Please model this.
Amino acid sequence: MIVGDILKPQEYIGHHLKHLQLDLRTLEILREQNIPVTFWTLNLDSIFFSALLGIIFILLFRKVAKNMTSGVPNKLQTFIELVVNFVNNNVRDIYHGKSKIIAPLALTVFSWIFLMNLMDLLPIDLLPFISKYYLKIPTLRIVPSTDINITLSMAFSVFCLIIYYNIKIKGINGFLKELTLHPFNHICCIPINLILETVNLLSKPISLALRLFGNMYAGELIFILIAGLLPWWSQWILNVPWAIFHILIVLLQAFIFMVLTIVYLSMACEKH
Model:
């Protein structure tokens, strides 16, 4: 619980599930007619932390790349090399084509999502307390991957690449034939094939987004429930075991998103 506030458990949990939002439509209407109607809402905290973690990822890897030595590496270089080799091995095992994008994309997806998920291990009230009492920010959620808008935007980017590679490798005619003549190669089955293949195509980004969002949202909610329902002096009894287990979820969800991205792009590059 944030110092100075007396909240019931329901209020505490609800408070921690609210985003710092900027509702552009409401602001416009308030200026003109003073009618609060929501049209377009931006979750500023999710945007800020996802951008910040992306910048940290870029600067960290750039620093290691510029200062890399052929001799005995330092601990940071060793760790980065392990991550790069791990991602590279997965790409080699799954993607058998030639592309200059797949490996960097997989590394970016894995590292960025891992950093987003890692924010869930920070104390639940630490940054909200600092933001409220020093920056006068009323609400703050610090885990971008618990925002369905962030996970959907990443999945949509992968979906755009799937469409791009389908058309690039197979051509427009080949892509359309795959949608209309698969799995039943008969002209009478075109409507059925189109429905089945459209559902199959759209399920890929949706499954990517919902899997990551659902697992991370559930993990964050458990931390909030522990903090909201137990006295502060006893929270560590459940927080510590759950945090240790949650490290596996943080890593596993980043790995699954990366692997499925590689698999979907590999499927898009195959000719039938």
User: Anything to note?
Assistant: The CA atoms of residues 15 and 207 lie 28 Å apart. The chain has a mean pLDDT of 88.
